[in-house]
Amino acid sequence: MTTNRLPKLKFKKSIVSSPKESIPLKELLDRLDALSTELSKVDQEKFDVNSLNNIKDDLINKKLINHKDAGVQSLVACCISDVLRIYAPDAPYTDSELTNIFKLFIKQFKKLADQGNGYYTQQVYLITRLAEVRSIILITDIDDNTALIESIFELFYDSNNNFHKKLEPVIADVLIEIISEWDQISSNVLKLILNRFLTNTSREGASITSNLSSSSASPFNFTLSICNANPDRLARQLTKFFSEVLFENNEGEDSEVQFKNLRKLHNLSVEIWKHVPEILGSVMGLIDNELNADNEKYRILATETVGKILACQSRLNFVHTHRETWISWLKKTLDISPHVRTRWVEEASKALINRTDVLAEISNGLAKTLIDTDERVRLVSTRAISKIPSSVLANKVNNKSILNGLIQLAREKHPEIRQESINTLACLFDDCYQDIFYNDASEGDEVYKIINQIPNHILNLLYINDKNINYLVDKVLVEKILPFESDELKRVERMLNVFQTLDDKGRASFIAFNRRQQQLSGVLTKLIEFSEAFNGGHDGDADVEKKINKTIDWLSVSLPDRYNPKKSLERFTKINNRRLYYLTKLTISPDSDYETIRNSSKELFTRLQDSKVVNSVEDESSYPINDIFQTFKILIYRASLNFYNRSNISSLLKLSENSKYSKIAQELVDNVSTITPAAFKNQIQDLVKLIKDSVPGVGESKVNTLRALFHIFHKMKDYLDDDDSEFFDKILDFASKGTPLEAKFAVKLISLSKHEDALSVQLFDSIYPFDGDSEYFTSHLAVLSQLFLTQHSIVEEKANEITPFLIKNVLLTNEVVGKESDPVWISDEELEKGNDLNLSAKSLALRIFTNRLRSLSEADEESDNSVSSIAEHVLKLLISLIGNGGEIVSSKSGAYPTPRHYQTRLRLDAGLNLLKLAKIPRYNKLIKPTTLNRLVLLIQDEEENVRSIFIHKLTSLLKTESISLKFLPLVYFIAYEPNDSLKNEIRTWIKFSFSKTSSAIANRAQKSIVFEKSITGLLHSIAHHSEFLEYIEQKDDSEEDEGALKAFTFALEYITFFLDTIATEQNISLLFYFATRIKQYRDALFQENDFKERNDAIYNIYRVSDLAQLSIKELQDHKNWTLTTYPGKVDLSSELFASMKSSEEGQKIVSTSFIPESITKALKAKVRQKISSISTSKRGRPHQEPKENEAPKSKKIKADSVKPKKRKKAAKARDEDDSGNYNKGKDSSPNKPLRKSSRAKRISYAQDEEEEEEEEIEEEESDEEEESDDED
């Protein structure tokens, strides 16, 4: 179609006023409207543009563009927009003209924010037309376009301008077109675009409170549209901008200001990643460089940024897209700066919550930070993990290392780390409790197994014996592990579920918590009574005030200092609030039921948090409410019967009949009846009826019920109906036909009756004479064992008949002959079930002999010789069992050998019975040093259960001072214990007991040096140890030096173990004095003939003494301690050491070195190495588990370890008889070989040893020990 045929503009009227023609405003508006309407309908490709030549020029006339009427400007702008459309792609205007045009457009854009203006429709048409035909890009062709473009962006990004939501895509298109065609985006525009990522952060999720209504266009959406439409362009601009800021930060003078800008840019990167991650491609390379920068601040910032990005939800997977940066970020757990590692932890924990694809990598990194060398990192790690929801930690993260790290950090020295760890673990257990015990989905899951053990780990913390830790443990025990629960059955079930997860130490701690309640309740009740009498000081009774202060001091000792317990308790008494007094007494009363305790404690805590109550004291300044609240909260937790409450007994008894809970419920019933028998007041008749309705030997064992009744009636005898013949007939049935344990407690119940004599005679007559073939024979022995304690006069008459019967028919014969397949050990539980009555009979026979002696201990002096004779025979039997490894059946007998597990239990029982007799002074005098040397065999027994049970019993008796201190040196023979846990436990007990003794005695009297003096007993026992003797007596010239070196190396382990636990700078001179003092005595176990004949063995104590002196000197040198002459004089034990016959003999011994010169150099090297290892070993952080058998890097000395040898034949063994004579093997009785200990695993002499951060629980259990012995 030719130009002449194309449609032309029909509008012919003038739109510009002239002197010839003045156009009224209304007419002008009508003409412009008509023109605009016609132009809007013009088809660009089918129109004669030449027809617009005049009108296009008129439209840009200043009279129109700058017209004062808004309508004129709006219509002119619309007309121009269509002219530009029709002329496209070439604009019919110059740059200056376009500049004026776009200024007009911008004026119209501003009016879009006002939807009420009369020409809003024209303004919308204008911007829409510019966007549709992309005419807006003409602005980028103008030479000086920056100001214009910036004004457009400033207009649309101004939060004060509210553009309608429907205009959002149009405005976005306009901005997109400008950015896409603009050669150089100015920094101002770029900032406007990018800053919207930052300003949008504060408004995310807050649409209701936003200053922009939901119908308004969002500048943030403009930014998203621009970035999505121009990712490459924006990526380049952003990278350039990032690089410039980095450069300015490195080179700029005001580095702090520049660094703030850099931080802002990093925050921007995080927000960009959420919405348009594509534009961060090159920026991530710069951030990766920052991760590895020398500047710590850069690494911290980059670590934080990547962590936040990882925690974001984005359409790109950061790990896959930026793999190298991800790997670099993971390595920040090993960064040299703790600040970087700390920041990594803070961000990593958030990523764990929001991601599922990198759980393993991040959780492994968190596990590493939990064992970081810097406590700040460990603290932040625990805090970060505490913020992770339990469901995420258990099910999603599911990382064993993290939980194990938290468990180890619960023993951390740093109080905040410890507190965070304990609280996190307790909350985790509380949240997962239902899943652990009632959800099959958690079954078999390793993480849930760890969570299941959390209560045990927490309760074991009580052994550290730190009042701050005890506070945390008690708090989480009541609030998280066993929280308040209204439903009685659920409450008791939870207590049983928790209790059955505990090991022996955990259960002991739980029982100790409940045992402590009675004492603490009594003291707190006294404080309330004193406070009531004191009446806030108004009565002015000085005596009462003194009692109050004394009670407060006692209570404050066990409370954490951070809550000022003493001042808090003093404030409580000054408040003098009768309601507080009443609530406290009600809460801790043993007669209060569970709901009463719960409600009264709740009200008490509420009142203690009321400032009006706490600060109601006249003439007193305000007091921190939290201090008094926390102080009383823990006191109430400890003093109230939350667990062993009478409200729980009914359900406890009910669950004891449930197969799932029967065993553990019966154990708790026994504990409750022992500690708080009053809790059973309402259930006594039910327990009695249960016994009456039972038949011995039928159904479940009733031993726990009998035990509970004994404890109840023992402390509340008024509740025992002595005339209930039906009950006591049934008790007699249990004694004669029940299991051995049932029989035992049946006899104990009989001993509480006023008809005890008649019932005991009736019972004894029913079981004696014994019938060895009876199915109840073992139970009858249990009855006899108890009757010796309760009715000695009845059974003593037959004792001379009973003793040979038991020896011949029980101890010296075996109904079952041992074989290779026999187990090495049988547990107490198996024996209690009656799984091996033959072994039980043998153990009971030993107990009968022991109990007979216990019953004779108070015999008059006239019968002393007779009692001593009996005692000597029993001791000889016990010693023989220990020395022979539990075997006393003749090898010629058809019943030989005794099964291995029989031997194991019998030698252990022999040792335990001997310790019982040692508690009685009359028999303690009969226990000679040779006997003590035999007991070493049990501490070094080949069976771990024997070692553990015996050493724990020994330390328990030493702790309560129930046995003589001559037994103390035995504990040091734990030095070769292969079980590190047991060895460290005993080491801790020694250290704690030693420090307690030292601090308790102000004046260093004889009693205050018992531990130091025990070195003499230790050295004496070493000199008589069978392995030491074997090595030292190797006479072959080629092996003599080797044997001597082995002997001294063997002894060195015990000496260094002693020094490690006892030696201090203050007592080193005293220890050296005792080591040298030995050389001023003879060995009392040798006869005069041995000294006359110069038997080489008489010098063994001097050899060991010289080794001890050498070790002490080496320790003194290594520690730079001062070794001075001890000023006092202390005599050594006459049982172990005898005086020299002459001063010449003494001088000769003192001046002689008994360490062979040929091995001196090698031995000194060993001593130096061993002393160095024990004195330089540092207490590792609790989270660091020692590597098993790890030796130090120093060069090893040959023959460092003495390998255990197989046992020698009895004829080659050495023995020391009970009279103290030292006999050579050839003269020893073949029936009494000295059993050599077999240690299956030796600890390297060069090994570093880690110390457990663990001390004994302070609770005194002497009463329980005595009661336990009575039961035995």
Automatic annotation (TrEMBL):
Compositional bias annotation for Basic and acidic residues: 1182-1203
Gene3D superfamilies: Leucine-rich Repeat Variant (1.25.10.10)
Gene Ontology CC, one term: meiotic recombination initiation complex
GO terms for MF: structural molecule activity
Compositionally biased intervals (Acidic residues): 1247-1272
Region spans: Disordered: 1170-1272
Alphabetical list of Pfam families matching this protein: PDS5
InterPro entries named among the record's database cross-references: ARM-like, ARM-type_fold, Pds5
The protein's name: Sister chromatid cohesion protein PDS5
